[in-house]
Write a structure and sequence with these properties.
By secondary structure, this protein is α/β, with parallel strands linked by helices. Helices cover 43% and strands 20% of the residues. Strand 1, helix 1 and strand 2 form a beta-alpha-beta unit. Bound molecules: flavin mononucleotide.
């Protein structure tokens, strides 16, 4: 399966490296798209080494497609996933904002392409009514499938819901959702 993996800016970005590695072991191809904030947590080079493909971090610098990158990358995908998905990126996807590589590629996804969202954030951020409304809005569209964040001690020191779900359960959901189309 061709998996488009969006990585947004949170501590859990490093766990997306595991996800790429696990997906590769299972025979999937992974194209990573990172937000600018995500690159502050993990370098694109890590994902390039793990995925064997150039990482897209900008709509202005190509990843080697003959056409327009954000369209070609979106077309390539059998299934999409944002893990970790920040509160900000969730908001952008819910509101139709396309102002960076990730949100622009996601806007260009083919109509049938399903998308897994694996949020990771502080408990108060996750429980913020705006974030919960964005989640509902996305779910109502039918193409977005959430993997619930889990409860544990978070990077900020708080104990509560908001940690990225296990990478294996994120990948299981990607496989299930990818077969829906
Ligand atoms: C140390 C640190 C950790 C952060 N962790 C998270 C996080 O886990 N989840 C989240 O939604 N935002 C987190 N943020 C805030 C985001 O990085 C910020 O909202 C950013 O604008 C997200 O941009 P993006 O959605 O384009 O990646 C963190 C910020 C910092 C400085």
């Amino acid at each position: 399966m061709k998996i488009l993996l969006g990585v947004s800016g949170g501590i859990a970005a490093y766990k997306a490296c595991d996800l790429v590695s696990l997906a590769n072991k299972q025979g999937h191809q992974v194209q990573v798209v990172m937000t600018a904030s995500a690159t502050r947590f993990v370098t694109p080079l890590s994902f390039e080494a793990l995925s064997g493909r150039p990482v897209m971090t900008s709509t202005w610098e190509g990843v080697g497609n003959p056409g327009i990158d954000h369209i070609e990358v979106a077309k390539w995908a059998d299934v999409a996933c944002v893990a970790p998905c920040s509160a900000n990126t969730m908001g952008k996807l819910a509101c139709g904002i396309a102002d960076d590589a990730l949100s622009t590629v996601w806007m260009a996804l083919r109509r049938g392409t399903q998308c897994v969202i694996a949020p990771a954030m502080n408990t108060e951020m996750w429980l913020n009514p705006v974030v919960q409304r964005n989640r509902r809005w996305l779910e109502e569209l039918g193409r977005y499938h959430f993997v619930e964040p889990v409860e544990k001690r978070l990077a900020c020191g708080d104990i509560g819901i908001g940690a990225l779900a296990d990478t294996s359960s994120v990948l299981d959901t990607i496989s299930t959702v990818g077969n829906l189309k």
